[in-house]
Structure formats: C-alpha cells, structure tokens
Amino acid sequence: MPPSAVLGGLARSGRWRRTSALVGAVVGGAVAAGLGLGAFAVLVMAGWISSPYPGSGPDDALHVAAAMWLLAHGADLVRADTLAGGPAPLGVTPLLLVAVPALLLHRAGRDAADTADRPRGALGGVVGGYLAVGALATLFATDGPLRADPLSAALHLTALALLGAAAGVWNAYGRPRGPLPAPLRRLHAPEPRPDGAGRPHPGPAFRAAAAGVLVLVGGGALLVGVSLAVHAQASQTTYLQLSDLWSGRVAVLLLAIALVPNAAVWGASYGLGPGFTLGAGGVAWPGGAPTDPLLPPFPLLAAIPDAGTGTPLTWAACAVGGVCGLTVGWFTARAAAPKSMPDRAWSRGETALTAGLAAVLCGLALALLAALAGGPLGGGALADFGPVWWRTGGAALLWAGLLGTPVALGLRAWRVRSRRARDLWGRVKGVRLRAPRRPGWVRTPGWVRLPRVNVPRVRLWRRRDRQDDPQGEQQNDRQDDPQGEQQNDRQDDQQAGPVAVGRRRWWTPWRAKSGTREGSSAPGFEPYDFTVRPGPGPDPESR
Does the keyword Cytoplasm apply (predicted)? Predict the structure, then answer.
C-alpha cells in the first residue's frame, strides 16, 4: 500500500487530527516550561552581568537560574558552599514566584483544549511536555551552587503541572461542573429532611471560606506594613548593609518583593494567635517574642516585634482572627436568608452546617499557605522557620467556626425577623381605626359640630383588600349603625339650616366661598360660624 493511501486513511479516520492535537499539546507544555526557565535565566544573568565582582562564570549563573525555577515550584534546594563548610537546606519558597509557572501552565492548557477533541488528551499532552523539560532542568540543577533535591522536584513539578494545566482546560470548556461522585453530588444538592437539619451548601461555603482567607491574608499584610513602619530605621539599616552596589541592592529588593506574600501569611498566623517560629530561638506570637533570635540580616526580618512579653498593641493583632470569623458568618447569613428571595431562607441546621464547612475550608487553606510560606533557611538554628501549618490551620478553624457560626445564625434570625416585621407593618398600614361614635341620646346645639376624625384602624389579621371588595366595607359600616347615626345627622342638619357651599377655613371664618345655598339668610345662621358642617352637595375639595 502506498504511503499516500495510508495518510489518506488516517486523515479520514480522524487519527491524524487527534495525533496532531496531542503533539501540539506536548509542544505547548514544553514551550510553557521553556518560557519560565527563560524568564528566570534573564533575571539571573542580568544580575550576574551587572555585578562588578561576579565571583563565578556564566555556567554557575545558569545553574542558579534552573534552581530558582525549581524553587518557584516548591522544590527544596541545598546550598553546597556555606560558611560552616557543610551543605545547608533552603526550603522557603517565595510565593510570588509561583505565579509565573502557574500562569504559563494555565495558558498552555487553555490553548491545547481549543484544538483537542478530548480534555484528557489536552491535559496529558501539556503535563507530559512540561515534565519532560522539568526533568532536564532537574538534572542540570543537580550540580552548581544551588542543587535541587530530585525527589522533591519531581513531586512539586508534577503537582503544579497538573493543577495549572487542569485549570486552563477547565476554563477553556466553560468551567463545567460535570457529574460528581455520589457523596459529593448529595452534598452539592442537599435534599430537605423532615427534622429540618438539612445538609451544608458547598457553594456558599466555598465563597465564605474564600472571603475569610482573603481577610486573613489582607490583615496579615496590614500587620506587616505597620510593623515595617514602626521598625523603619532598623529595616533601612539592614538593607543598606547587605550590599554597597546598586546591582546587589536591586537584587535584595526584588527578593523582598517576592517574599511579600510569605510575610502576609506570617502576619496572618501572628494575628490568629499561634505566631511563627524563628528557628531555635523561639516563637513570636502576640504574647511575646524571643529575646535573642538568630536571624539572618534581611529587611523583612528586621520588622519582627520587639523581644519581651506581649503588650496591648500586640494583643490587638488578634482582631484579624475576629474579623475573619465575622466575615465567614456574614457571607453565610447572606446566602442563608437572601433579601431577593426571603421565602427561601435556610433552616438553622443548614445555616450552622454551612458555616462549619466554611470554617473547615478556611482552616485547610491557611494550613496549606502556612506550609508553603515556611521552611528551613539553613541547618541548626535555622532549620525550622515560619508558621507551623497545623497550628495556623487549627487556629483559623477555631476563629471561623466558633465566631462565624453564631454570627451566621444571628444574622439569619435578624433577616427573617425583619421580613416578618415588614409583613406585619404592611398589614397594619393597610387598615384603619374607627373613631368612637357619638351615642344617639346625646344632643348638641345646632351651631356646634363635632369634627370627624379618620383614624386608621389596626387589624393584625389578614383581610381582603378594600379595592377588591368596595361594597363589603360600606355594608359593614351600615350594619354597625344603620339608623342612629344617619338620623342624628339629619336632625342636626334641620336645626342648623342651610350652610354655605364650600368649607371655610378656621383662620378666615369671615371669608365665604363663591355662592351660597338657597336660604342662607335664614334665622340662626351666622356668617362667622366656621364650625358649620357642609351639607350634601359637591365636594369642595374637588373644585
């Protein structure tokens, strides 16, 4: 069979198209890894070129660039040359550097999904191409000033490649939810239970947890900024002592900027209560800080609170955890009793379970961030640095759960109560109160008229609207007193005689409106009698 026939058969069967899409996905993953490596190589080579005393050749600079690229994925590095003579681990990952490979993987997965027939093919191709380049970079980084741990690099590269590419493919397909497993499907679509307990709602719980995490990280960044402002002199002195050259100072500044998210997570752990460890020197938390911690000179580390016991200012940092709990409760209550659909309010059990699920998710997120933000900076006294992940996650769970759940239940009850109060006020406002009627045996002079007072009548039960039944209300009024009130009014009119057409105002009793009824000069009529009730005729207000 000729090759043209084989290629034609592959094209007709669709295998050629699937093969080309898979090759494109693999190439896209490799290109994403190459772009990330190139970005780090440009930064490292620019610093090496600008340094007047590099102390090494371009080969070592490229090894450092590959090691920094692996560090951006979370891999552990080892410094071969130290002052002590032995190797020292380096495991603190600048969280801002993680955004570079994550964005490249997301874009590669999204572009591969546009040409692939199946999402699995696009995901597998991108991950395969990315890991192929990552394996070469790991082998290259095993030798040099900074050496990568092969096992740690393999685990972290695979995890980040899968997450980033999966997010891109999912976004390309319109972020579908798809079929979930049976337990997750029941959790996502809770069925009402007869006891009213219900199940938690995962969507609002995720949103409430995300809001709580943002509040914690933002509050931690605020604490770091305040501490830097208080210790500005010490930070400036440390920054100037690290290097006398502008290239070295620029490198230190870029490293400090890359570590700002780490500092925000450290501040969040400090505001939650557990604080963060400073190696073998102790723990810095709102209750106090170690006296003489062995810290490397760095501007961000110079902003650590002063040694000694806690002060009211340091204890005020715990307001970050309180605001997190209030935020989780408020977001949960807003979903539990929405203003647009007040009749679809959740039960107390559903609200409490959703707030509890949001607290668990918030704790898991903070534990993950704390694990990524900390790590060893060396051996011995610097082997453990940063927040402890299980303490930080547990503190976030307690703040969000113990404070968020009561807040969610209270706000839900208030919203339901407000809706009931509005309904009750609508019923009261739509009815009227009757003024007390004058008994039939009471007689008044002809020139005295009691004013009619229309007071709304309060009725706390539902009643059909008067516009729907205009005759019913009038019939009820007649049945209350069909003869007595009308007869008294008729006798009063006969005694009073004819009255002027129109209503005189109390402040101008001498001024009459245009025209009077016939017989206005009858005896007993006084022109200044402004209390005379208008007789039957057209309504003066309608003129």
Answer: no
What is the C-alpha separation between 176 and 191, in angstroms, rounded? Answer: 22
Give the burial string for 36-56 (b: 16+ CB within 10 Å, else e).
bbebbbeebeebbeebeeeee
Contacts 24+ apart (CB under 8 A), 447-453: 447/496, 447/524, 447/526, 447/529, 447/531, 447/532, 448/531, 449/492, 449/496, 449/531, 449/532, 449/533
Look at strands 146-148 and 77-79 and give their pairing.
Answer: antiparallel
Where do the H-state alpha helices sit in 51-118? 58-72, 95-115
Query: Which tokens go with 77?
Result: 């590095």
Taking Cα atoms as reference points, which of 140, 144, 112 lies closest to residue 126?
112
Give the range among 24-28, 327-331, 524-528 with minimum mean pLDDT: 524-528
In contact, 269 and 387? CB cutoff 8 Å:
yes
Query: What would you report as the CA-atom Rg of the chain, rounded to the nearest whole angstrom?
Result: 40
Tokens coding 55 = 């102390």
Q: What span, in angstroms and rounded, lies between the C-alpha atoms of 346 and 331?
A: 14
Q: From residue 279, give the alpha-carbon distance in Å to each of 94, 199, 286, 388, 510.
A: 18, 44, 17, 11, 98
Report how far residue 537's alpha carbon sits from residue 503's, in angstroms, rounded to the nearest whole number.
12
- Please say whether the dihedral angle defined by the alpha carbons of residues 265, 269, 272 and 278, taken in this order, is positive or negative: negative
Residue 229 confidence (pLDDT): 93
Looking at residue 391, its amino acid is: R
> Span 511-530, mean pLDDT?
45
Among residues 391, 216, 236, the alpha carbon closest in space to that of 298 is found at: 236
Return the C-alpha torsion angle 205, 209, 211, 216, nearest 10.
160
Q: Does the structure show a pLDDT above 80 at 180?
A: no
Structure tokens at 416: 């339901």
DSSP characters over 327-373: HHHHHHHHHHS-SS-GGGPPPHHHHHHHHHHHHHHHHHHHHHHHHHH
Please, what is the average pLDDT of the chain? 78
Other Cβ atoms less than 10 A from the Cβ of 386: the count is 24
Residues contacting 425, CB < 8 A, separation 6+: none
Considering only 123-127, 197-201, 325-329, which range has the smallest mean pLDDT?
197-201
Q: What is the pTM of this model?
A: 0.72
Model confidence at 246, pLDDT cuts 50, 70, 90, reads: confident
Angle (CA) 368-370-372 rounded to 5° is 70
DSSP secondary structure code for residue 280 in this structure: G
Q: Whole-angstrom Cα distance, residue 372 to residue 268?
A: 14
3-state DSSP assignment of residue 430? coil
Q: Are 332 and 359 in contact (CB under 8 A)?
A: no
What end-to-end distance do the CA atoms of the chain give, in Å? Answer: 105
Q: How confident is the model at residue 295 (pLDDT cuts 50, 70, 90)?
A: confident
Say whether 309 sits in a helix, a strand or coil.
Answer: strand
Torsion, Cα of 100, 103, 106, 110 (10° steps): -130
